[in-house]
Design a protein that fits this description.
With about 220 residues, this protein is mainly beta. The chain has one helix at about 205-210, and strands at about 5-20, 25-30, 35, 45-60, 65-85, 90-95, 100-105, 110-125, 130-145, 150, 160-165, 165-185, 190-200. About 0% of the residues lie in helices and about 65% in strands.
Amino acid sequence: MLFRSAEIRAGRVGYTWDSGVYSDEIRREDIGSRLVTGGNVRWIENVNRNQVLGTLSTFRSGWAGTHNVKVGFELYRDTSERDQTGYPKNLLLEFNNGAAVAVRQYIPSFAINRLFAGGVYVTDTWSAGSRVTVNAGVRLDHYRSYLPAQSRRASEFADAANFAAIDNVITWNLPAPRFGITYKFDEAGRTVLKANAGRYWWNPDVNVASSVNANVATG
């Protein structure tokens, strides 16, 4: 079997979200009067994905019909970097109808969360005569959530801190078989019956790693 076509693609996609604070005044919240003044929590989040995809395909006839076989792979790394401070001066003053109730002190963070994923698949579109077409394939995906080494800068209420890397928070290996069949009741294909079944998995994203990351903003 000779491969007739090949394709490979690589790219990077992402975004930056800057929340803004709109004021440098210390945050004050009155739970009695519902009056809120001062600045907001400031955070900047950078999310990106580096990705490589490739496919090989071939066409063969004579094996009880014709076959269009495709094999491929996908590799990518998702990264989320969240630089978060507290309210201005890292303080939140709480009141109840003007009476002081509590003071909250915030510890900023610069959290980095990652997911590495790789997948391979093979599919075959088999035309068994002029009326029956079968699509069969399987995909195997590998996911590894992890945390690179990271640090927290010093702030008003906390010293700087370093956090060791966690190379494997959790790993999944997920198979996904897929099968479909099409039957034409007439040669012209005016009436067609189709049936499909398959397994599809949800991308776990970086949220799994972030759920155990100790380098998070606290207050």
